[in-house]
Amino acid sequence: MATKELRDLSTGELESRVEDAREELMNLRFQQSTGELTDHTRVRVTRRHIARLLTIIHERELFTNLEGEA
Predict the structure, then answer these.
(1) What is the pLDDT confidence band of residue 70, given thresholds at 50, 70 and 90?
(2) What is the pLDDT of residues 26-69, one digit of tens each?
(3) Which of 44, 47, 43 is CA-nearest to residue 18?
(4) Where are the domains of the chain?
(5) Exposed/middle/buried for 25, CB within 10 Å: 0-12, 13-18, 19+?
(6) Class of domain 3-69
(7) What are the pLDDT digits (tens) for 18-31?
(8) CB proximity list for 28: less than 8 A, separation 6 or greater
(9) For the CA atoms of the chain, what is the radius of gyration?
């Protein structure tokens, strides 16, 4: 999903997607440790997806705090 589409989601939906992605990363790491993982790039892609989601959530928190101070 593109970053622009992610920004259109609510904060609750983003947090839900972070939980799902973290679970997927845990499963990928487990597969990697047991030697079952064939596509090792999925680990990197999933980590970056989590970072992207957390960045959007953090930006919203900062924006909310700035609005509260004004």
Answers:
(1) low
(2) 999 999 999 999 999 999 999 999 999 999 999 999 998 888 87
(3) 47
(4) 3-69
(5) middle
(6) mainly alpha
(7) 999 999 999 999 99
(8) 37, 42, 43, 46
(9) 15
